[in-house]
Specification:
Blueprint lengths: L1 H28 L5 H12 L5 H9 L13 H26 L3 E2 L2 E2 L1 H5 L1 H22 L1 H23 L6 H27 L4 H28 L9 H5 L4 H9 L5 H10 L6 H12 L2 H19 L8 H16 L2
Antiparallel strand pairs: 1-2
Helix pairs in contact: 1-3, 1-4, 3-4, 3-8, 4-6, 4-8, 6-7, 7-8, 8-9, 8-11, 9-14, 9-15, 11-14, 12-13, 14-15
């Protein structure tokens, strides 16, 4: 038991150290020839964030050949994490322009502060920095990064044009997989690759991360409806008319002959900028069975993510990945 706790403490120390190195590297990567560009490029990075993708890189880097308690070399882990997080941050600049967002992580968005053109170009600058870093890792990583970026773009295009003739829920889940889960899967795969993990381990970690990436987005969807219980501002996506798992499940099963369902359909198809209308829509959604169905889907997918860990070597890193499955379920309850 003592040896197990010592391994847990050692992993915690390694994760903390690696994440600190990654944070410093992110700020360095955002340095430009112009002070203004540096400030704009660091704007989202300095605002913080979950750093979920770097965390997965670090945890996956623990699954290399036995005998190295620190996992893969720190330099390779930092570079791999830098690639995925720079790609993620760069995509946020472009997303905010497309969404006409005014805030990002509680501060004015880059497009609000410097305008759309600068925000787009700063995103391009960060993508270039990510490309520069991934080239140092080798052609296999470049190829994987390119394929991931293609999925990101296709997911964004699909979200922009909408489901058209496709099933709206299936379309939404594919958008989530491409826009969100693909880069999270690549994060785990990068970590495993720099650690020299066996191919079977790489595949298991990538499958786990693709599923857990989808789960995180779907749990956020539930939180958008139930967030009075979590301390977050409720109804943000609802107000902006963004499809989410609960609203899509509601639309699939709504009974137009039911006064409550009919009223909620009317509200969802209207302008919810009025606080009273938003509160009414939230109230109707919260008592509808679609919320329980959405929570059940989060649990089902979390269990599926956990199943991919079964054949991985036992230890603190596998336990930490399993704990993430529990946390995504807990946060949406």
């Amino acid at each position: 038991m003592l040896a197990e706790r010592e391994r847990e403490v050692a992993l915690e120390a390694t994760v903390r150290e690696r994440l600190e190195l990654i944070e410093a590297a992110l700020l360095r990567a955002a340095e430009a020839d112009s002070a203004m560009v540096t400030e704009a490029a660091r704007h989202v990075i300095a605002a913080g964030g979950k750093r979920f993708r770097p965390l997965l890189v670090v945890l996956a880097s623990q699954f290399g050949p036995a005998g190295d308690p620190a996992g893969a070399p720190a330099e390779d882990v930092v570079r791999a994490a830098l690639v995925v997080e720079l790609t993620h941050v760069a995509s946020l600049y472009h997303d905010d322009v497309m969404d006409e967002a005014r805030l990002r992580r509680g501060s004015a968005s880059a497009n609000e502060r410097w305008g759309n053109t600068v925000a787009i170009l700063v995103g391009d600058f960060l993508f270039a920095r990510a490309s520069e870093e991934v080239a140092e890792l080798g052609p296999d990583y470049v190829r994987l990064q390119a394929r991931t970026f293609a999925r990101l773009v296709q997911g964004q295009i699909a979200e922009t044009v909408g489901p058209q003739d496709a099933d709206p829920l299936a379309h939404y889940l594919q958008v989530v997989a491409d826009k969100t889960a693909s880069l999270i899967a690549t994060s785990a795969l990068f970590g495993a690759k720099v650690a020299g993990a066996e191919l079977s381990v790489q595949r298991a970690l990538a499958a786990y991360a693709e599923e857990i990436g989808t789960v995180f987005q779907l749990s956020d969807d539930v939180i958008d409806v139930t967030s009075d219980e979590t301390g977050k501002t409720p109804g943000t996506d609802l107000r902006e008319g963004i499809p989410t798992l609960p609203t899509l499940l509601f639309r699939r099963s709504a009974d137009p002959s039911s006064p409550a369902d009919s009223r909620l359909l009317q509200l969802l198809d209207s302008d919810l900028s009025d606080d009273a209308d938003l509160a009414e829509a939230l109230g109707l959604l919260r008592v509808h069975h679609c919320v329980d169905e959405a929570r059940a889907e989060v649990r089902r997918r979390a269990d599926r993510a956990r199943s991919f860990l079964a054949d991985l070597p036992a230890g603190p890193a596998r336990d930490a990945l399993a704990d993430l499955c529990d946390s995504v379920v807990t946060r949406s309850v």
